[in-house]
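User: I'm putting together notes for a lab meeting next week and I want to include a structural view of one of the chains we've been expressing. I don't have a solved structure, so I'd like a prediction I can at least talk through. The sequence is below, exactly as it appears in our construct file.
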Amino acid sequence: MLHYCVSFKSIALFLQFKTIFENGESTEYAGKACAYLAADSNIMKKSGKILLASDLGDEYGFVDINGMVLHCRTYLFIYDW
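Assistant: Thanks for the context. Below is the predicted structure for the 81-residue chain, given as structure tokens.
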């Protein structure tokens, strides 16, 4: 039988992640990022880079299906990671 040590810190971290994913971006948001990127005539300027959907949303002016604009860096700041 396996026993797991669960600390208050790990529970708090789990709850933070749960909140982030419950209020996170939809799969449609990532799909919009791909579609706008594919339609960009200057796509090669972005080649070889890591692109975040939220940054592309800012650049191309699209939002998630619920109207929200999400930035993962905001979560990193809020949760002090």
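A couple of points you could mention at the meeting. The two ends are 34 Å apart (CA to CA). The chain has four helices and no strands.

User: Perfect, that's what I needed.
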